[in-house]
Specification:
By secondary structure, the protein is an alpha+beta fold. The protein is built from twelve helices and eleven strands. The chain has one domain: Beta-lactamase (3-Layer(aba) Sandwich), CATH 3.40.710. It is globular, with a radius of gyration of 18 Å. It starts with a helix and ends in a 5-residue tail after the last helix. Bound molecules: glutamine.
């Protein structure tokens, strides 16, 4: 049995004060108000042992990490038909790019870039009675906690400045791949991104991708084993946009980042680990978060490869 607490303590100490060339995202003005010094890590193993260090108990905006949760709920509801609306190929482009949509006739490359997540939100709106409420309840059930909330501040801040997402949504609608009202889809998308969680909560929520025992909760199947495999596969190939290859190369785990500075990574059959450090590298992924996870899988010799 590895001493995870000692391992994360040591890496944390080593990285806490390194020179971090990244920048806190401020294109969503409300995210720019978060202190760059936050740094937290939490790992939860499949036997439910949990180890944290630093700001692991502080809530932050999970942003694109929510794309795994919207995908999971949509996949649960519509099954394989989902792939008629969104593809499963790495984009090799930034998360908010419009470039490939023209050639791909409005079918986003994958559900983890903004275009793909917006289509997934459209699918959810078509199937949920009260999309915001139902999605939040889905997340609360996964977390076994009613203490999860959207941040109105962050969602509204993004709504005011979300020009690219508005462009993406309109562009996809022009190809017929958005079925609902543009404003409703964007509002739902911005809210899903604004959910706040701690590293500890994140590493617990995502256990369902680490161990089949967590795939069934309260008698309900979240996903089948085969579907969970597929979500992990998309995380490995697409979870970090045009840095997905680099993350697989350095860390060797399926994972997903958000512009709030969080990263979740999964070691199937072993653990889920969440890291939070708000300064982002040029590709929009947490600079220190990537370093931490690289060091962690190196020290524990525990990647999937
Ligand atoms: N809400 C953010 C956006 O749409 C999410 C991006 C991210 O976390 N990479 O720009």
């Amino acid at each position: 049995m590895k001493n995870y607490q000692d391992i994360i303590n040591n890496i944390y100490k080593k990285l806490k004060n390194i020179d971090d060339p990244g920048n806190v995202a401020d294109y969503i003005p409300e995210l720019g108000t978060v202190s760059a010094d936050n740094f937290g890590v939490n790992i939860t193993t499949t036997d439910r042992a949990s180890y944290g260090i630093g700001d692991y108990n502080k809530k932050f905006s999970i942003q694109s990490i929510s794309k795994i949760l919207t995908l999971t709920l949509a996949y649960q509801i519509v099954g394989e038909k989902l792939w008629e609306r969104v593809d499963v190929e790495p984009s090799g482009n930034p998360f908010n790019s419009l470039l490939q949509l023209e050639a791909d006739l409005g079918k986003p490359r994958n559900p983890f870039i903004n275009a793909g997540a917006i289509v997934v939100c459209d699918v959810l709106i078509s199937h949920l009675k009260n999309p915001k409420e139902d999605f939040l309840n889905f997340c609360r059930d996964l977390c076994h906690s009613s203490d999860l909330q959207y941040s109105d501040k962050v969602a509204l801040s993004e709504k005011k400045t979300g020009y690219r997402n508005t462009a993406l949504c309109n562009f996809i609608k022009s190809f017929g791949n958005i079925k609902n009202n543009i404003d409703d889809v964007l509002d739902f998308y911005f809210y899903t991104c604004s959910i706040e969680m701690t590293c500890e909560e994140l590493s617990k929520v995502f256990l369902f991708l680490a161990d089949e025992h967590f795939l069934c909760q309260k008698g309900n199947h979240i996903l089948t084993i085969s579907q969970a495999k597929r979500v992990n596969a998309i995380m490995l190939t697409c979870g970090f946009y045009d840095e997905s290859g680099e993350f697989a190369f350095r860390v060797g785990l399926p994972g997903k980042s958000g512009v709030g500075g969080g990263i979740i990574a999964i070691h199937p059959d072993n653990y889920a680990i969440a890291v939070w450090s708000p300064k982002l590298n040029k590709k929009g992924n947490s600079y220190k978060g990537m370093h931490f996870l690289e060091q962690f899988t190196t020290d524990t010799e525990s990647s999937i490869f």
